[in-house]
Every structure is written in C-alpha cells, then in structure tokens.
Amino acid sequence: MTATDQEEAARQLNAILSCHPPRLWVPRSEPPEILAYPSRSWYDLHLDANLALRRLTSTPVVLDDIDELAVRYLDDLRNNGLHSGLPEVHLPEVPSGEYRAAKPGILGAVEYFQESFLRLCLRIGTRLLLCPDAPTWPFFLVWRRVLNDDLDDGLAVDEKYGLYLPSTESHHPNLREAARAYTSKQVMHDLQALIDRSPNIGTWVMLAPSKESEHLISSLHELQAVTPKACRTTGFPRLPVSFERQRPRDASEPMWSLTDSEGPPEPLKRSLRSVDMLKPSVGSKSRIVPAAFRRRRSTAFEYENLTPESLLRLGWARAVETDSTIIVFSCGTLERIAIRRRDTQTLHISELIKVSDSDSPPYLRLQVGLYIAVVKDTIARLREEGSAGLRRSSRKRKAPEAVSALAFKRQKVDNKKPTKPESAITIAGRKDFMLLYLRYGMYDSPAPASFVRIGPCLKTSDPAKSERPSVKRRYSEDQCIRMILTSQLGLGATGVAHTASLQVVDNDGAEQTQEVVVKIALLPEPQAQLRHEFEIYRRLATHAVQGVPEVYGLFEDLEGGAIALVMSHCGECLWLLRRTHPSFALNLNVSERQRFYAVLDDIHAAGVRHHDVRPENLMLDPAGRAYFIDFDRANLDPTDGAKRREKRILVGLLERAHYPDYGMRSPQTPPST
Ligand SMILES: Nc1ncnc2c1ncn2[C@@H]1O[C@H](COP(=O)(O)OP(=O)(O)OP(=O)(O)O)[C@@H](O)[C@H]1O
C-alpha cells in the first residue's frame, strides 16, 4: 500500500474503534436473579492473609494508561506501514442503535458483547499484539466463561469470565496457519508458556444488567478500607509454618502509573474479637473459643446481598485464583477496570465507563488496550518468573505429613507403660469439635472454621447413635480434631472432595495423624444429599460392609454454610486409571473384577442400591482393594429386580466396558495442591 493508504487505513481503524456500541436492552429473568455473594465464597474466608485484599484506591489514570497502550500499537501499525488493506473492507461493522438481547441476565450481557464488538476488538487486539505484519485480522484470542463449575443457580453475578488462549490437541497455540507465519518465534514461545501455565487469563466479573447492578458498579470507588473476612474461631492453635510462600510479584515494568501514597498496607483487622483473633494459643491451658455457641437453624450457605465491598472481594479472590492483575467489573451497561497490586495488596479502581456512551477514551479502543494489557502483563510476569527461576505456583510446600508432624504444641511425655497408641481415628471418634483449616493453592486459613459433630464415627462408635452434642463455650486442644484440607480431589454435584490430614492428641500428649478425604457441601440441596449419603453409610456400617469408605463422622460449620463428611481415602477411580489404560475394563484382572462384584453383593445384602455405578465411583487403592464411593443417589431396601439390574450394569461395565456415557467427560477436576 502507498503512504496515503496507510493514513487512510489508520483513519478507518480509528473511526471503527471510536464507534459507540449500541445501547443494551435485556429481557427480565424469571424468576429474577439475586445479586448475592456466591456460595464458593465460603472458601474465600480461608484466603492466605498475604494474598487478601487490604486496601482500595480510586485511580483515574488507569483508563488513560490502558488506552495509551492501544494507541501506541495502532500508531506502530501506521508508522511501520503495516496496513495491508482497508479495515472497513475486512472488519465487521459495529451495530448502532439498540441491541435487544434474546437472553436475560448475565447471558444477555454476554450475548450483547459477542454480537456487538467482542470479535472485532479481539481480532484487532490479536493482530496488534501477536502478529502486526499479518495481512489479515486473525481470530485467536477468545473471551468466555473460563470455568464450568457452577454451584449456584440464579445469581446475578458470575466472576468466572476471562480471556482464553485456544490450543490444539497437542497443547500448542491454536493460531491459524496464515497468522502463525507472521508470528515471531518469541511470541509463539510466550504463548506456549501462557498455555502451559493456564490458558485462562484476566478476571471479568459479570453482573446481570439492572439498576441495582449499575448502582453497585457506580459505588465501587467510594470505599477506602476493606476488612478481610475470616472465620470467627479464636484462641486456636497456629499451624506450624510449613512452607515458604514467595509473595507473588507484580511485573517490574508495569503498563500503568499507579502510586500507593498511603504507604504499606495496614495490618489485618477483623470485624469481631480482633484482639485475640491473631494470637496463637499457648500450652495446654490454651482455650479455643468456637465461632458460635449455638447451632444455627440451618447449616446451609445463606446468600447475602452483594455490597460494593463484597463485590470487590469477590473479584479480588478470583484474580488471586487465576493469577490476574486486571479485574473488570461489568453489567453490560457500566464498567470499571481495576488493577491488582500484589505487593501492597491494593486494588486500584478506574473511573466509571459507560459502555455505549464513552468518548474519552472511546470504549472499543479501550477494549483493545485491555486485551493487550491482560496478555502483555501475564507474559511479562511469566518471563520474569522464568528468569528468576520461580515456579508457577510461586510457593514451595512440604508434603502434608510434614504439616502435621509438629502441629500440636502439647508434648507431655509419660514413659510409664508402653502401650500401643490408639489410632488417630479411634481418638477422633470420641471428639465432637473440629477445627478445619485450608492449606493448599491460595488458601492458608487466617483462622480455622469451627465444626461440631452431627453424625458419629461409624467405625469406632455405635452407628445407630444419633445424639447431637451441645456446643461448649471453650475447648482445650486435646478436645479438638484438627483437620487440614490439603488439596481439592474432585468436584461433583453434591460437593467438593478434598484430601485432608486429620490430627489429634492422644492421652500421652503425642500427636496421631491420619490422611482422610473430606467432602464439603454448601447449599441446601447438596447438604440434604450429603446427609442422605451419611445415612446410607450408616446402614452399610451396621452390616459391616467392606469395600466402601470408612466414615469418621458428619460435621457442621457453626457459622453456617457448610457440612463436612469425613471418610477414608479409597485410592483412584477407574475413570482416571482409564487415562493410562485406554480400556479400564480390559485392564482389570479377574480377581479385581471379582472383588468389585463381591462388594456390590455385600452392598445389596445390606439393603442398599448404589444407583450410580460409573467408573468415577469405582475405586482401586494401591493394594488393589476395590471400593464403591459416592452413595448420594443410593436408596434403601430396593427390590431384588433393581439389585439384579444394578449387578448387570456393573458386569457390563467391567467385562465389556459398556458404559452408556462412555465419552462423557469426567466431573473430576485436576488436583490442585
Ligand atoms: N473416599 C474417597 N476416596 C478417594 N477419592 C474420593 C473419595 N470420595 C470422593 N473422591 C473423589 O472426589 C470425586 C467427587 O466425589 P463424589 O463423587 O463423592 O462427589 P459428588 O458430588 O457426589 O459427585 P457426583 O456428581 O458424581 O455425584 C470422586 O470422583 C473421587 O475422585
């Protein structure tokens, strides 16, 4: 193209990016969604204090900095003579007037983004950043919901949107051939590193378009201080420092000019009993005060209305999870962009952006700058981590055993009679109070949650026992079970299963530890299913059925929001074993298959039908023992016909790999430690 054409192309591109997107109209949701904090926020109480949001500041310059980034890249295109055609010919037009979404709520806003400007801005952003020499405007960057792990229905907020880098089956960047030819080796290398780390980048918190959402987003800048939330248990024993967390780093050459004039962040404050909350308990006289003295009427997670503060905390927690620097709060009509500073734990919040009516900077150009900023920042931090020799997780952790070893402070030594120590499970079976800590990924509970027993240990107590112990005002350390969740094992319809380390002190003051699995349910329906599952295990325990998890109790959170089923670890499921052995059925030897049949016969003899015989629920432990797990769909006293049918399903599965949904994805999430 001639020099004049370059000018014309640049003018056209600028004109396209200066268009106002159409106004948004969405139909009303029936029933209306609620603008409340999602149930997964139960986990946010356990966010590591070094990663939590501590301060907010309003930083108008954020928008100019991001816009300038887009302008710089656009100028480079023109100055380097890289326009290869007139953008009006190659890029779609931005619709004007009003966009009437077909879908209500958040999906309506998402549809509006997609139909009005997303593809356009993503294509421009892709070319400017990755392959400015390309003759076309390639499709590569994607914006979408990045995780498919819905626990809550009917909420007007969803913070799981972000940019996504598509990859091929062999996990390479899925840039079309045409674009790849124009992408430098360095950029390809960076994209590969991003995909290897996690192809999901940036955090978009989407709210259903409404007056209330607009009010929330408008009010975000008014806050200054934030009170980190934590469980209210006090006087609890501190876990020994078992790993060295390297504070996550910000890019050393940020794309924005943020100033934290207030100095270092204030120490953590709690809303309640802040004085003794952070003190570790000392010695045997220490007294642990549970988070509440009375059980709540309902143990289920109760939705609380979103406030500006809780909305910001929600976005912040997700940004920690996805390691994002940029968080966008949007309800389709209004937006704010926020920058997360890791070192000062501060969120810098932009001015309000009116999506269909923003001229300075123009909304679409700002979008292009935003995508560039999200990708560039992540690449910059990855490169710095690489050159500093840091691992992606930015933390080093000892094995869970090491966490447990020194945990209790009381170490009474009584050398009188060398008796065989009781097992951790036997001791725990007599205890009704449990301190639950989270220690994996981004979690390191500032305070443990207080749980009280609602179901007996089915291994060491009478399974028929159904008393509900009262809550004491205080507990000593030797009255507590200490439960440390160490990773997420799997996510199902009922709850989230975790590996955990159960720790107790025996009569001699020595610590006993057992690795277990803890399944947590938050919402009313999953909690009802988990209680039902416990009742099924009660029946199985009454008949001494082997080949099902040993169940060590059902516990409820005194602050509400969660119940926890504690059970033995049963190894790995056949679905996962199938990954290494393409046909799990053929890889089970005869005696392994016989073991599964024998267990199912025992389950049936106890008057239980499993009702969910799938490879995900059949486990083999390292010793080759067979287990059935996940009895939340099981029923009691089935007919003989039903038992026979279930046996046939198992035989079909194990002998012929006959599985109706064989190609279905496993509900498993990868372990996160
Ligand atoms: N006792 C256990 N030992 C080992 N792994 C377990 C155990 N319990 C659960 N898991 C793991 O956690 C995953 C989810 O647990 P589970 O199937 O019990 O949850 P769920 O919510 O009832 O799931 P679903 O939607 O399949 O009913 C399982 O697929 C399994 O991998």
TrEMBL record:
<dbReference type="GO" id="GO:0005524">
    <property type="term" value="F:ATP binding"/>
</dbReference>
<dbReference type="GO" id="GO:0004672">
    <property type="term" value="F:protein kinase activity"/>
</dbReference>
<keyword id="KW-0418">Kinase</keyword>
<protein>
    <submittedName>
        <fullName>Protein kinase domain-containing protein</fullName>
    </submittedName>
</protein>
<feature type="region of interest" description="Disordered">
    <location>
        <begin position="245"/>
        <end position="268"/>
    </location>
</feature>
<dbReference type="InterPro" id="IPR011009">
    <property type="entry name" value="Kinase-like_dom_sf"/>
</dbReference>
<keyword id="KW-0808">Transferase</keyword>
<dbReference type="InterPro" id="IPR017441">
    <property type="entry name" value="Protein_kinase_ATP_BS"/>
</dbReference>
<keyword id="KW-0547">Nucleotide-binding</keyword>
<keyword id="KW-0067">ATP-binding</keyword>
<feature type="binding site">
    <location>
        <position position="519"/>
    </location>
    <ligand>
        <name>ATP</name>
    </ligand>
</feature>
<feature type="domain" description="Protein kinase">
    <location>
        <begin position="483"/>
        <end position="673"/>
    </location>
</feature>
<dbReference type="InterPro" id="IPR052396">
    <property type="entry name" value="Meiotic_Drive_Suppr_Kinase"/>
</dbReference>
<dbReference type="InterPro" id="IPR000719">
    <property type="entry name" value="Prot_kinase_dom"/>
</dbReference>
